[in-house]
Amino acid sequence: MFLSRLSLSLLLSLGFASCSEKPTMETSSEAPAEPTAKVVKTEEEWRKELTPEQYRILREAGTERAHGKIYEEFKKQGAGAYHCAGCNALLFHSDHKFDSGCGWPSFYDPAKAQNVTVRKDLSGGMVRTEVLCAKCDGHLGHVFEGEGFDTPTDKRYCINGVALKYIPAPAKSEEKAAEEKPAEEKKP
Fold first, then answer.
1. Of 138, 133, 136, 78, which is closest to residue 111 (Cα–Cα)?
2. Beta strand pairing status for 90-93 and 80-84?
């Protein structure tokens, strides 16, 4: 009995410890330099560069909790681009995101198709299509087709938010907007 209470206590404390970590989607005000070739690193290098949660998802094909803090952040994000949190490759754009209600960031098309690759995934007793970053082979999530969403592709790229780095679109200043006006509008 004592051993089972001890085990339960240990499991609960581990569970609460992991719940207290609140991962957020990485955000940067400037677009990162994108890789021009395949990104190859040792597992030790990946562990040093990524957070533990990013490593679990990108390198070990993990999945973040549905409807978590990152998903709530994603729903509030405006115009911008989504890069790979592992290697900075451009993956998705806010123009292609939609609310599928699944609890994870959803897009109907990649922003830069050559940076996204797919493969058959037979894990978990299911047949799915895994989505990977083509530059660093990081696990991003899965893509589903034919679900009837009113999108141009009828695809749902269901992506782990922690695998993404959000770059908000630059805000147009009034000065820049004035420069873009046609010459005849600028005349007094």
1. 133
2. antiparallel
For position 99, what pLDDT does the model report? 93
Residues 81-103 as b or e (16 or more Cβ within 10 Å = b):
bbbbbbbbbbbbbbebbeebeee
Q: What's this model's pTM, rounded to 2 decimal places?
A: 0.79
Annotation says 84 is catalytic: no
Token code pair at residue 48: 């040093």
User: Which sign does the torsion angle of CA 142, 116, 69, 172 carry?
Assistant: negative
Domains located in the chain, CATH noted: 39-170 (2.170.150.20)
Report pLDDT for 101: 93
Q: Which listed residue (84, 87, 133, 158) is catalytic?
A: 158
Dist. CA 60–CA 186, nearest whole Å: 57
Q: Is 175 helix (H, G, I), strand (E, B) or coil?
A: helix
Query: DSSP label at 97?
Result: B
